[in-house]
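Course assignment 3, question 2. Fill in each field.
Student: A.L.
Task: Predict the tertiary structure for the chain below.
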Amino acid sequence: MYQNTSDKALLDLLEKHQRLTFESQLSLLNSLKNRSISCDTSALKESISNKKDKIKELFYLKNLGFQYEYLTDDAVKVSRTGWSIFTDACAIFFGLVLCFISIYGIFALINTFQADADISVFQILVNGGLIALGVLGIQFLSGANRLIDYIGFEILSINNEVTLRKRLDLKRIEKQADVSDIQFDNDGSVMGISIGGTEVITVPSGTLIHELTLRELVKKLQHPSGN
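Answer field:
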């Protein structure tokens, strides 16, 4: 990542390492070691260590919209966070509002051309902008599928058995499998967790801290007791 970066630029990055992503911090530390640059990297190492500890604790799982909790010493549960459900619901609400505004813009634009009065370029631009909001509204409405798919979502791991509860094509399913059937998948564009071939959690690839979090989640689901 920093092969073509000068030593001075690396030292500048070291001073503001807290602003860097986890992957960038690892790359920076590696570059400083490889070039044998004399500097104090203790703060950088501590930041990396803290992030690694948080990954093991699944601290960043909430950023993906999920939470992990121990039920007993040998039983754990994964479910959606209340905040993620709330944000999906808000996205649907705003999406509907924007779509209604867009529909209003369409009718207003039609009326502009049908009116006997002179056509106002400004009014056309305003109505065109209202119509364009509909595209944004449709993107917000994509949260509806996610909200429906994860109604009642749960992953329960007890001893050597895992139970998945979620909706698939609006139908609520309950699937039981061996913990060995829990897999981490990454095709380069999308990564996530599957259970017995059923996709459970999917997120865009490319974020190392999310990938390591999902891999750690697989480990904890396969070994709830930590053994």
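Instructor remarks: Residues 7-54 form one domain. Helices lie at 7-15, 22-34, 42-56, 82-114, 121-140, 143-149, 208-222.
Grade: pending
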